[in-house]
Amino acid sequence: MYKRQIDERLLGWAQNPHHKPLILRGARQVGKTTAVRNFARNFDTYIELNLDIDEEKRIFETKSSFDELIQAIFFLKQQPDKKDRKTLIFIDEIQNSPKAVKQLRYFYEKRPDLYVIAAGSLLETLIDKAISFPVGRVQYLYMYPFSFEEFLWTFDNPSYTEALHKIPFPEFAHETFIKLFSKYALVGGMPEIVSLYRNNNDLVQLNEVYHSLITAYLDDVEKYATTKKETAIIRFVIEKSFFEAGKRIKFTNFGHSTYRSQVIKEALNLLEKALILRLVYPTTKVIPPIEANFRKSPKLFLLDTGLVNYFAGYQKEIFVSNDITNVYDGLIAEHIVAQELQAYTTDHLHRQHFWTREKKQSTAEVDFVYPFEDLIIPIEVKAGKSGRLRSLHQFIDLAPHPFAVRIYSGKFSIEETQTLSGKPFYLLNLPFYLISRLDGYLRLMIDNTKPMQE
Question: Which SS3 state, helix, strand or coil, does residue 408 take?
Answer without folding.
Answer: strand
